[in-house]
Amino acid sequence: MRYLILFIALWALQYSAIGQDYVIINDPVYGGHKILFPDTTITSFTGDGCNYSTSHYFFDLDQDSSADLRFYSHCFEGSEGGSHWLALKPLGNFQVMSDTSYIVSGQYIDEHVQLHDTLYHRTIPYKFLDGDTITADMLTDTNVLKLYVYTYSYIPYFIFHIKILHFHNDTSYIAFKKTDGDKTWIYYLKIYLSIDGFKLMAAYSNEPGVGIEKPSKYKNYIYPNPVLNKANINGDFEQIEIFSLQGALLLTKDISVNKKTLDLSGLKQGLYFVRLKSATGEVVQKIIKN
Hints:
This protein folds into two domains: 33-205, no CATH class; 213-290, Immunoglobulin-like (Sandwich).
């Protein structure tokens, strides 16, 4: 009876997570599925200078062969000033989680050649960090939003120094909401932006079947379950991770082709989450240790 109750609770947890209206960044259970793609450097600001140039990069976030995000990089330097910026535009049924409270700092010279500081609000993509919760009802935007701005001018009476450096020299996350009829899914991107370039490092989503091998609820990748000491692994997986219910990583082990067994004798009796990783994706299952 005890195991029946646990099974019902686990089943409800697993399938409610698919339709959940929030994700927790990098959480082993509620962090979403990883979408596989290589680290991508979109643009670089290095060099001895630039003349007028703007480049575009299209990114297919949900891997349906159509672009969902458009990144713009712009560089201009001349005798009267220059401008460097990176912007993002969501496409189709994607919206970017936005922050309307960001304060932009600037400076200008008035007609008396006096220098003044100025502050004003600007909408930018919301900056998320590890452990943050992203909810489907957060404020979103479909316009072009700047991730990085550094603009300066030597012409009097013009604003000659504007900076948006919220994401600069930091690893962080930007998030998106995808709507499909009456369904809503959450995506988030791990990014790094510095003077050396802008990198897309990882992507995650709570939309089932995107970028992962979608498990059947009748298929056991780990058996027997419940397990006493040794478990067998079914599938072409390369690495296994075991987490406590609180999300603590307890064990990481590489899986060889010739040995697909796992010694769990060191774990206490209880309930655990297991993440199995392969070259094509990952799955998460629950196991009971007797």
